[in-house]
């Protein structure tokens, strides 16, 4: 059975596929969000809430996020735990993004992402 995903989640999982060994910090407005297994791994390390949302799916998807202005603090915790991180930035303003779907439907508007950078502990 194929699970229908929103365009935003399709984008997230396409980028995640390029970085399977890293937690993906995915910029969404003022937050970096993590979904699925990344959220489940990161939440206890970061001391943040693990929530879930449907995002167009029949089952709920785990979600965790941190404010972008304090991301360095959270990135340091992930790296200290020995994990690698890919940080993906928005390259388009969500307010200006074209939606996929009915005209005037704000729900389907999503910003494009790219410019993933990577962080991990230096090896001696």
Which labels suit this protein?
single chain, 124 residues, alpha+beta, MutS, DNA mismatch repair protein, domain I, 3 helices, 6 strands, globular
Q: What's the CATH topology label?
A: MutS, DNA mismatch repair protein, domain I
CATH class: Alpha Beta
- Beta-strand residue percentage: 25-35%
Q: How many β-strands, per DSSP?
A: 6
The main β sheet shows up as: 6 strands, mixed
What's the helix-strand series? Answer: HEEHEEHEE
Basic shape? globular
In the CATH hierarchy, what is the architecture at level 2?
3-Layer(aba) Sandwich
Structure classification: alpha+beta
For the largest beta sheet, what order do the strands appear in spatially? 3-4-2-1-5-6
- Figure out the total of helices: 3
* Radius of gyration, in angstroms, nearest whole number: 15 Å
Oligomeric assembly: single chain
Number of domains: 1
Helix content: 25-40%
């Amino acid at each position: 059975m194929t699970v229908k995903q929103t365009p935003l989640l399709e984008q997230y999982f396409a980028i995640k596929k390029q970085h399977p060994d890293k937690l993906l910090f995915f910029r969404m407005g003022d937050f970096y969000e993590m979904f699925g297994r990344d959220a489940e791994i990161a939440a206890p390390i970061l001391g943040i809430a693990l929530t879930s949302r449907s995002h167009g799916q029949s089952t709920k998807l785990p979600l965790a996020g941190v404010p972008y202005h304090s991301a360095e603090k959270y990135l340091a915790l992930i790296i200290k735990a020995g994990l690698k991180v890919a940080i993906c930035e928005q390259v388009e303003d969500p307010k200006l993004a074209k939606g996929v779907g009915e005209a005037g439907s704000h729900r389907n508007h999503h910003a494009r992402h790219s410019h993933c950078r990577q962080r991990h502990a230096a090896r001696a």
